[in-house]
Amino acid sequence: MSAAARLRRLGAKLGNGHFAVADQLAMVGGNFLMNLTLARAGDLEAFGSFSVLYALLVLVNAGQSALIGEPLALSRELDAQQRPRALDGQRASLQIVLPFSALLAVHAFATMPGLGLFHALLFVLACTACSAYWSSKGRLHALGKHRSAFNASLSGGVVVVATALLAITRTDAVTAGLVAIVVSSLCGLAVALHADGERRAHASLSLRGVAELGKAGLPIALLVWIANNIVFLMLGQAQRLDDAAGLRAILTLLLPVNQVMIGCSAFVLPQLAAMSRAGEQARIAAFSGRALAVSVGAALVFGVATCLAAGPVSRLVLGPQFDPYIQALRLVAIALPASWACVIVVRAHFQGGRRPRFVLFGYVSALVLGVPVAAWALHQDGAWAAAAATLAIHGSLAVVLFGLFVFDVRARRHADAHARTSEIARPEETT
């Protein structure tokens, strides 16, 4: 088969699913450029404050995705009369997000002296706008309208960068970042609602239904958020905003690997779920094993290249004010992307294979092991402390989840071999 024929066959198999990956890339690109714009503004303390608020905003995202994303995804299986309307998803999101974001804003205002009341109100507005935008995009993916979701992300990404560039010349990094998030979320929301086209359905999405459908995914979402953001909260509590800014800058350079992996895992999850429903245990093990090897290998190549070029890349992209954190970047450049790749692939393996309890157990065990080490690292002096704390947590996650993955793969292969043996033995018993 020629290369062109293979590409046509792959395109027919994927349909417009490749836009789901492109959607993630567009979102990653927008956030990456926004963070670079704010980092290069020169005020480390303001960028550190924004980094802590950004971590809290991601917490809202984690809860909203678990509670709203699943009901919207399940709505694809319903007919038009039963499917929730787009605006019902917005209403349910706002009922959850508004009080939650207000509590987080009060916490940030009380613990971070550099923030004013205007920043707290702007944070609540950013959470509200983002939640509406995320609900609309999740619904588009659930309806199979991946191209429309990509268009919403692309427009939002362009607007967030343009707004950040304009606002940073007139105000501080915290205000500029939050304003950019609000404006881009509203822009993406408008595009998503225009593309939805199913606002006349008759079913409603109640808070009780949301809680019932989202209760299984919420603990995992919260554990994922804790693992990704606990170091920022520790730094904010200790008023080490310069180190928070340095860590955010380091992660800004490395996070594209993480986000691309998340986008790809979201694309392969349905395939793993289909294999699980068909009882193809050995195929799940082989598929996940290949995905893990390719992902970790690609992450290692990226990490080695980043480590070798850490100095020039940091000065070119971030600016000279982040020179003290170049050694910290070299410290985590190889191991952290590889750890992310391992964690994301294994998490997709367990969730797609209908064994989420392994993810729950793995995250709890890894946090019990990694958080004390991270706390010890943060008590050390040096620009490397925050990066080492982050590596301690994600390294623990990678080791624990990889061990569970090896155990699960062996169990699946054994179960598949046992099933084949039973099928062969049945005709002999009948005769």
List the uncertain runs.
10-14, 73-84, 199-205
Q: Shape from CA axes?
A: globular
Oligomeric state of the chains in view = single chain
The count of domains is 2
- What's the tally of helices? 16
Cα-atom radius of gyration: 22 Å
> Could you describe the largest sheet, including whether it forms a barrel?
none
* Secondary structure category: mainly alpha
How would you spell out the order of helices and strands?
A: HHHHHHHHHHHHHHHH
Strand content: under 5%
Secondary structure: number of strands: 0
Please bin the fraction of helical residues: over 70%
Mean pLDDT: 79
InterPro entries: Poly_Biosynth_Transport
Organism: Pseudoxanthomonas composti
Subcellular location: Cell membrane
Main location: membrane
What does this structure look like?
Helix content is 83%, strand content 0%. With 431 residues, the protein is mostly helical. It has two domains: 16-215, no CATH class; 240-431, no CATH class. The protein is globular. It starts with a helix and ends with a helix. Mean pLDDT is 79; it is low at 10-14, 73-84 and 199-205.
List the defining traits of the structure above.
globular; 2 domains; 431 residues; 16 helices
Element layout with pairings:
Blueprint: H1 3-14, H2 18-39, H3 44-74, H4 86-111, H5 117-142, H6 146-167, H7 173-196, H8 207-214, H9 218-237, H10 241-277, H11 281-308, H12 310-317, H13 326-332, H14 335-352, H15 356-378, H16 385-430
Helix pairs in contact: 2-6, 2-7, 2-10, 3-4, 3-5, 3-7, 3-8, 3-9, 3-10, 4-5, 5-6, 5-7, 6-7, 9-10, 9-15, 9-16, 10-11, 10-14, 11-13, 11-14, 11-16, 13-16, 14-15, 14-16, 15-16
